[in-house]
Design brief:
With 144 residues, the protein is mainly beta. The chain has one domain: Lipocalin (Beta Barrel). The protein contains no helices and eleven strands. Strands 1, 2, 3, 4, 5, 6, 7, 8, 9, 10 and 11 form an eleven-stranded antiparallel β-sheet that branches.
Length: 144
């Protein structure tokens, strides 16, 4: 972990502390935040409720408040702001307006990351999640 950056590192989902949507209920998940020159790259993988392994495409977070195209999602952009060192806020848009909002908040002690997500999935179903993640220490890489 980069001691100067609260997001950088590996995080493991705590399902008992999280609140899921009926259509989005992972049993295990891990995400990795890596600091880049202009923001972050976040990768995530997990085990869905049906036991299948899900690997998300890496997401790029550039906390400059400007709209950036979302790779692989035609016509969608995301604007990321950083109102404080431990908070990232994201708004995703398409031509119709806002299609998703998320916040990522690292606790004061740096041990917990809470992500709140409201969006629409690939089947056009709206969903809301509050996911609580715990920092992984002492292991090079954690996998669900």
């Amino acid at each position: 972990m980069n001691a100067a950056d609260p997001f950088d590192g590996t995080w493991m989902l705590n399902p008992q502390k999280s609140h899921f949507d009926p259509n989005h209920r992972p049993s295990k998940a891990t995400m990795r935040w890596e600091r880049t020159a202009d923001g972050y790259t976040m990768t995530a993988e997990g085990v869905a409720g049906d036991g299948s392994v899900v690997r998300e495409k890496p997401a790029t977070f550039v906390p400059d408040g400007k709209d950036h195209e979302i790779p692989g999602v035609s016509g969608c952009t995301a604007a990321v702001s950083r109102p404080s060192p431990c908070v990232l806020e994201v708004e995703s848009r398409n031509v119709g307006g806002i299609v998703g909002k998320a916040s990522y908040v690292v606790s004061e002690d740096g041990e917990t990351l809470t992500s709140s997500v409201a969006s629409v999935d690939a089947q056009q179903r709206p969903f809301q999640l509050i996911l609580v993640w715990e920092r992984v220490r002492g292991r090079a890489e954690a996998r669900p």
